[in-house]
Amino acid sequence: MSSPEIASLSWGQMKVKGCSTTYKDCKVWPGGSRTWDWRETGTNHSPGVQPADLEEVVEKGAKTVVIGRGMSEALQVPPSTVDYLKRNGIDVLVLQTEKAVQEYNALAARGVRVGGVFHSTC
Q1: Domains of the chain listed by start with CATH number
Q2: What domain of life does the native source organism fall in (predicted)?
Q3: pTM check: above 0.90
Q4: Element (H, E) at 56
Q5: How far apart are CA 48 and CA 83, in angstroms?
Q6: Bridge partners of 93?
C-alpha cells in the first residue's frame, strides 16, 4: 500500500486524495487516513503529541512519520514522543504543518512508507 497524497491544506481544513472527508486534524498512513481526534488520547497543545497519538500510524506500517505542529507551531512535540518513534526504528520529522505536508507528499511520491499526524490550525 502506498501513502496517500495530501491534496490540500488551508487553515482548519485538509483533504487527502481518494477520501471525501475534510479533516481539521488528520492521521495518514500507507493505505489510509482518518480524523485525528485529540480527545482519544487527551492531547493538548502542551505537552503536545503523545506516543499514543502515533501508535496507529506505526502499526499501519509507516517507516517514516511526519508531525505537523500547526500553522504557527503551537502544538508541542515532547522528546519522549520522538524517542518512542526512534526506539521503534521509525524516522521522524517535526515541522510547521505547511512544510510538513510538503515533506510528507515528497516522501510519499518517492514510494516511502510514510505516515503522519497533522494539525491544521494554530
Answers
A1: 6-118 (3.40.1230.10)
A2: Eukaryota
A3: yes
A4: helix 51-59
A5: 14
A6: 66
